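Morning F.,

Quick status update on the modeling queue. The single chain you submitted on Monday has been processed. Sequence for confirmation:
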Amino acid sequence: MKITLPIRVGVVGLGQRGLQHLKVLWKLQQEGIVHIITLIDTYADNLAEDKISQHVDGFRLGQIYTSTDFFGTLKSIPLDAIYFAIPPSIHKGEIVSSAQAGIHIFAEKPMSLYLNEVVEMEQEIASNGVIATVGFQQRYDSRFEAAQRFLSDKEIVMISMIMNSTLEAHSVKHTHTEKQGGPINRIWTSNYQWSGSTVVEAGIHQVDLMRYWAGDIAWVEANYVDRDSSDIVDGGDNPYAYQVTFGFASGTIGNLILSRLRKVFYTDNYNSILWTHGHLKFEPDGVAAYHYEGAYPPDQTPSREEIRHLLPLAGQRNATEEISRAFFNAIATGDEQVLRSTFSSGMYSLVAVLGANLSHQLNGQRIYLDELLTNSEFEWFRQK
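Structure tokens below.
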């Protein structure tokens, strides 16, 4: 069903990511695409105009309704769409209730740390016919978009993504975790119980990009190096390092290597996509495809300049803005095909990273994702 602009929208969770979305929504409201109706957060200080305006230029509450009571607001305030940007471990049925009310949903990832909970979300979204997307904004980044176009007719054999970062790189969040039994410094992204591990909290981005380029993941194997208890500060207990292998239905192999070390203050990364006859790299001056196009075999080994091809890129865009524009376009036209990640599709990026956690717990056992979702032997892992 099509909806006339402006689309009435609310935001649940005015933390770091919620504020980034609100900044975009504030811009889209000036364009007449949306009308911001309500802002909801468990903590009233996150709803103060003075605080929000530090992150959103020119922001004024005006007639925007603020509340710390989600379910009460859902019953009393008419909305067309809601953004959810809350920690994945503390959902309490908000997305399910919104779907049942026929409200379109933008859910930040990870959507949950519990498979039964996210499956219930997906089922209610589908049965109530609402449009829903997951915040995988990197699919709207011009570099990754160019890679997807280029690789669409290639046989990808391996994707490797490495990110070495630091525990200190996590920023202080806005959720009062110290009042909910969480980290006293509010850096919940470094805590396993709250974030679900670095693979789930951050690596889900890389995994979703792998799926964007190579399709469905069939299985996962993982081994983590757990953090020593003597090296845990302020609840930052996520593992030191992670090695995860993904097997795709197409036969592609994906490698994800992550680390979060303390007392290092240095980060680096490496990304490589291999297809049967070439490499694709993300380099400082663009996306470079390395492959030979001349007569084969060549008379002599081609130079780097001969085999390096920069892919054409669309103009630089704000990916967070672009995913919101796509979301509202889908709502306005009633056509979710414009979305690059529906909730039902994005759910499988979450299944893959949660499967990595399970594999590590089972000493690196290969976990098939369809079995993870359905077999009774994994019910203990799926439940909240």
